[in-house]
Specification:
heterodimer, A: 382 residues, alpha/beta, Rossmann fold, 6-stranded parallel beta sheet, two-stranded antiparallel ribbon, globular, B: alpha/beta, OB fold (Dihydrolipoamide Acetyltransferase, E2P), 7-stranded mixed beta sheet, 5-stranded mixed beta sheet, 23% strand
Chain lengths: 382, 451
C-alpha cells in the first residue's frame, strides 16, 4: 500500500475517533482509532461512516407529543415488568422470567423508527418489553406469563416464547443467539419478496459471543440482507461482565471483519436511540446491506428472577439509576418542555391502572384446556 | 389503602425461605426500587425490592425467621394517599387463588388416519430414473409451481450439487432461488428456518446430515418447537434434506444415521425414502407441507435406478408406510437403504421356503404403526432391519410398538438387525463387519420363524 494512502487513512481515523469520543460522552473507550488501516483505506467501505452521520445529529428532534408517547411506552414497560416481578413473587408466574427494567429506551426508540406493517422484529428471551413497545396488548402478554389460555401463545410458550405475527414480532427465542440467523432469514424473505421491509434482530452482549452470530454476519453482508443487528449491551451476560467475557468489548466493531458498519449509541436516551435507528434503517432500506448497532444500556434487576446479582455492587446499580435512567431523564426533559407534573402523575396513574387490569386479567383467566396439550404440534394431519 | 407485602417466590423452585434481614423499619417511607429486605432462598440470598410507594406500616414477620412460606404476609405498606387510587395494586390476591392444578380430565390425542397412495391410472407410462434424478425433478417441479420455494446449501448452485442432486436447478431458476452458502451449517440452517417463518418455502440442503449436527439446534429448537410455543401462530415450512447414514469408507464422522434422533422430536416430520418413486412423491409432499420436514436421503442409493410413473403431479402421503413385498411368514420392517437389503433377504428366504413381507416405513415421524401391526397380525413374526445403531433406534421403537400394541399377535420376540454398536471403522473388512447386511436379516428371520 502506498504510504500516502496509509497516512491519509490514519488521519481519517483520528478524525473519526475524535468525533466519536466527543459524541459518545458516556463511553470511556473511544481513545484508540476505531478503524483498521486496511478497512479505512478501502474507498468502498468506511467503517464509521454511519457513526459520523450519527455524530452530526445525535438526538431525534421529537415533538412534545412524540416525546410524551415515548415516555408513556417506556413507563408502561417499567410498570408492567415491576408487576411481572410481583406476580412471580406470588407464584403466579413460573420458571424463568427476565425483566427489561432499565433497558426501556432501546425497544421504544427503535420501534418508533420502524415502518409498521413492513418491517419485522425478532429478539431473545428478554422479550416482554419489546412486545409492549410494538403495541401488543399487555393483557395477553401478562396472561402468557401466568400460563393462561388467553395468553398470546395460549399459555404454551411462557415468558421467553411469545410471538405476534400480526405485529411482525417473530419472538421471543430462548436459545441465546438463535434469533440472529433467524432474523437474517426474515431479512432474506424481505429481500426475496422485494417488499421493502427491514428486519431488526436484537441480541445481548452475551449472545454476541455465539459463533452463529458471526456465521450470520458473514452471510448477511455477503448477500446484502436488509437487517439491523442490535446489540443491547446491558453489561452483563447473566453474571459475567463484558470485560470478563469479551476480548473486544466495543461490540459495534464486531462487524468489521464482515464489512458491516457499526454504530455506538447511548441506549439510555430514547431520542438518541431513535435518531441512530433512523440512520441505520435508511442505510439498510436503501440496499446497502446490514448495520450493527451497539446500544449501551443497563438492566437494573437480576438476569432472571432467581439471580441475586452479587456480581455487581448496589452502588453501581444505584449510580446508573440516578444518572442514566431513561425514564427519569425523559421525565425531567418533559418538565423542562413545560409539561405539568400533574399531567405526568396522571399518566403514571393511568399506566398503573392499565397494568393492574392486565395483571387481574392474567390472574383470573382460565388455564389452557387439557385438549390444548395436543394442538399446534403439527399444522397438518398425516 | 394498605398493601400487603408477601413472602415472594424468588426462584422457580422456592417454596419457603428465611427472612434474613429487614432493611427498613416501621414508619419508613419507601419508593419503588428501594430494597426492603434480604431473603434467603434455596439458591441464594436475594434482595426484596419495593414496587409501590408508601410508608411501612407494620412488619409482620421479624428478621431471622426461618421457613417462611411463599405467600405469607411479611409486612404492610400504608398507601401514599395519592390519586393513584386506581385498582388495588400489588399483591392483593391471595396465593390460594393461584392457578389450580390442571383438571384431571384426560385429554384425547387426536389421531389422523394417513391417506393411501393414489392409484396410478392404467396405461400410465413408466420410466426408469435414478433416485438422484427423482429428487431433482421433485424440487424443480415444486419450484415451478410455487415461487416461494428456493434451495440453499453448500455447492448446490454453481457446482451443481456435491452429489449432483441439484443439477441444472441454477440454470433454470437462477441465483435468486438456487443459493450457494458458505460452509456454515448452523448459520444457514437458521437463515433457512427464519425465511420459512417469514413466509417462504426453503429447501435447505446439507451436504450430509453428519454436518447438520452443527445445525441441529435450529432444526429442533427453532423449527420444530416454534409452532407449538407460539400457540399455532408461527409456521415453519422448511425442508432440511441431504444424504444420511453410511456411505462407503468415509469413517465414523461421515457415516451416522440420524433418523432416530430426529424421529424422537415432536413437531418434526421425518421422511427417509428408499426408491425413486417414493423419493419424488414424498419430497414434493414435504415441500408443500406446512410443517418442518427432515428428509433423509442415502448417498449409496442416489445412483440406483427404479421405475417411476410418469405423472403430472406425483405426490405421496406423508406418514404412510408401504408394503413393498407381500408375504405371510414373517414381516421385515425397514426404511431407506435397509429396504434394499430386506428385499434381498426376502429373495433368499423365498428360496428356503419362507415367505417374507417387507414394509418400507418411508416416514419415520409420524410413524405408521397401523401398517406394521396389521402385518404382524398376519405373519405373527417381525424383524426390523436398520442401517444404524441399535440403541434407541427406529428398530427399538418398532419393537416397543409391537410389544405394547401387538403382544397377542407375536409368536416370537421381535428381532432387531442393526449396525454393530461401534463408530463406523474405515478398514474395508471392519466396515463390512459393522454394517447391517442381507445375510444377517435372513438369519434373524429364520430365528423368529424357529427355523
Amino acid at each position: 500500500m502506498p504510504c500516502a494512502v496509509l497516512r491519509r487513512a490514519r488521519r481519517r481515523n483520528d478524525l473519526l475517533a475524535k468525533a466519536a469520543s466527543k459524541s459518545a460522552a458516556s463511553s470511556k473507550k473511544n481513545a484508540e482509532p476505531a478503524v483498521t488501516d486496511s478497512a479505512a483505506s478501502d474507498d468502498n467501505f468506511a467503517l464509521r461512516s454511519l457513526q459520523d452521520e450519527h455524530a452530526r445529529q445525535k438526538r431525534f428532534d421529537a415533538s412534545t407529543e412524540e416525546f410524551l408517547e415515548f415516555y408513556q411506552k417506556m413507563l408502561l414497560i417499567r410498570r408492567f415488568e415491576e408487576r411481572a416481578g410481583q406476580l412471580y413473587g406470588l407464584g403466579l408466574i413460573g420458571g424463568f422470567c427476565h425483566l427489561y427494567i432499565g433497558q426501556e429506551a432501546v425497544a421504544v426508540g427503535i420501534q418508533s423508527a420502524l415502518d409498521e406493517g413492513k418491517d419485522s422484529v425478532i429478539t431473545g428471551y428478554r422479550d416482554h418489553g419489546h412486545m409492549l413497545a410494538y403495541g401488543i396488548d399487555p393483557k395477553i402478554i401478562m396472561a402468557e406469563l401466568t400460563g393462561r389460555q388467553a395468553g398470546i401463545s395460549h399459555g404454551k410458550g411462557g415468558s421467553m416464547h411469545m410471538f405476534s405475527t400480526d405485529h411482525a414480532f417473530y419472538g421471543g427465542h430462548g436459545i441465546v443467539g438463535a434469533q440472529v440467523p433467524l432474523g437474517a432469514g426474515l431479512a432474506f424473505a424481505h429481500k426475496y419478496r422485494e417488499d421493502g421491509g427491514v428486519c431488526v434482530a436484537y441480541f445481548g452482549d452475551g449472545a454476541a459471543n455465539q459463533g452463529q452470530v458471526y456465521e450470520t454476519f458473514n452471510m448477511a453482508s455477503l448477500w446484502g440482507l436488509p437487517i439491523v443487528f442490535v446489540i443491547e449491551n446491558n453489561q452483563y451476560a447473566m453474571g459475567t461482565s463484558v470485560k470478563r467475557s469479551s476480548a473486544e468489548t466495543h461490540f459495534y466493531r464486531r462487524g468489521t471483519a464482515f464489512r458491516i458498519p457499526g454504530m455506538q449509541v447511548d441506549g439510555m436516551d430514547v431520542l438518541e436511540v431513535r435518531q441512530a435507528t433512523e440512520i441505520a434503517v435508511k442505510h439498510v432500506r436503501e440496499g446497502n446491506g446490514p448495520v450493527l448497532m451497539e446500544l449501551s444500556t443497563y438492566r437494573y434487576r437480576g438476569h432472571s428472577m432467581s439471580d441475586p446479582a452479587k456480581y455487581r455492587t448496589r452502588e453501581e446499580v444505584d449510580g446508573v439509576r440516578q444518572t442514566r435512567d431513561p425514564i427519569e431523564h425523559a421525565k425531567a426533559e418533559l418538565i423542562e418542555r413545560g409539561i405539568a407534573e400533574d399531567k405526568l402523575k396522571q399518566i403514571d396513574a393511568d399506566i398503573r391502572a392499565r397494568v393492574t387490569e392486565a395483571a387481574d386479567f392474567a390472574e383470573n383467566s382460565p388455564e389452557p384446556a387439557p385438549s390444548e396439550l395436543y394442538t399446534d404440534v403439527l399444522v397438518g394431519s398425516y | 389503602m394498605s398493601i400487603e407485602l408477601k413472602m415472594p417466590a424468588l426462584s422457580p423452585t422456592m417454596e419457603e425461605g428465611t427472612l434474613s434481614k429487614w432493611l427498613v423499619k416501621e414508619g419508613d417511607e419507601v419508593k419503588s426500587g428501594d430494597i426492603l429486605a434480604e431473603i434467603e432462598t434455596d439458591k441464594a440470598t436475594m434482595e426484596f425490592e419495593a414496587v409501590d410507594e408508601g410508608t411501612i406500616g407494620k412488619i409482620v414477620v421479624p428478621e431471622g425467621t426461618e421457613g417462611v412460606k411463599v405467600g405469607t404476609v411479611i409486612a404492610v405498606i400504608g398507601g401514599d394517599g395519592e390519586a393513584v387510587s386506581a385498582p388495588a395494586p400489588a399483591a392483593a390476591p391471595a396465593p390460594a387463588e393461584a392457578p389450580a392444578p390442571a383438571p384431571a380430565a384426560k385429554a384425547e390425542k387426536p389421531a389422523a388416519a394417513p391417506a393411501a397412495d393414489p392409484e396410478i391410472p392404467a396405461g400410465t407410462n413408466m420410466i426408469t430414473v435414478t433416485v438422484r434424478e427423482a429428487l431433482r425433478d421433485a424440487m424443480a417441479e415444486e419450484m415451478r409451481r410455487d415461487d416461494r420455494v428456493f434451495v440453499m446449501g453448500e455447492e448446490v448452485a454453481e457446482y451443481q450439487g456435491a452429489y449432483k442432486v441439484t443439477q441444472g436447478l441454477l440454470e433454470e431458476f437462477g441465483a435468486k432461488r438456487v443459493i450457494d452458502t458458505p460452509i456454515t451449517e448452523y448459520g444457514f440452517a437458521g437463515i433457512g428456518t427464519g425465511a420459512a417463518m417469514g413466509g417462504l418455502r426453503p429447501i435447505v440442503e446439507f451436504m450430509t446430515f453428519n454436518f447438520a449436527m452443527q445445525a441441529i439446534d435450529h432444526i429442533i429448537n427453532s423449527a420444530a418447537k416454534t409452532n407449538y410455543m407460539s400457540g399455532g401462530q408461527m409456521r415453519c415450512p422448511v425442508v432440511f434434506r441431504g444424504p444420511n447414514g453410511a456411505a462407503s469408507r468415509v469413517g465414523a464422522q461421515h457415516s451416522q444415521n440420524y433418523g432416530p434422533w430426529y424421529a424422537s422430536v415432536p413437531g418434526l416430520i421425518v421422511i427417509a425414502p428408499y426408491d425413486a418413486s417414493d423419493a419424488k412423491g414424498l419430497l414434493k409432499a414435504a415441500i408443500r407441507c406446512d410443517d418442518p420436514v427432515v428428509f433423509l436421503e442415502n448417498e449409496l442409493v442416489y445412483g440406483r435406478h427404479f421405475e417411476l410413473a410418469q405423472l403430472d403431479d406425483h405426490v405421496l402421503p406423508i406418514g404412510k408406510a408401504r408394503i413393498v413385498r407381500e408375504g405371510k411368514d414373517v414381516t421385515i420392517v425397514s426404511y431407506s437403504i435397509g429396504v434394499g437389503l430386506a428385499l434381498e433377504a426376502a429373495e433368499t428366504l423365498a428360496g428356503e421356503g419362507i415367505d417374507a413381507e417387507v414394509i418400507d416405513l418411508r416416514t419415520l415421524r409420524p410413524l405408521d404403526t397401523e401398517t406394521v401391526l396389521k402385518s404382524l397380525a398376519k405373519t405373527n413374526r417381525v424383524v426390523v432391519a436398520e442401517e444404524g445403531w441399535p440403541q434407541c433406534s427406529i428398530a427399538s421403537e418398532i419393537v416397543a410398538v409391537c410389544m405394547e400394541q401387538g403382544f397377542d399377535d407375536l409368536d416370537a420376540p421381535v428381532a432387531r438387525v442393526c449396525n454393530e454398536d461401534v463408530p463406523l471403522p474405515y478398514a474395508a473388512n471392519l466396515e463390512k463387519m459393522a454394517l447391517v447386511d442381507a445375510a444377517r436379516i435372513v438369519e434373524a428371520a429364520k430365528k423368529v420363524c424357529y427355523r
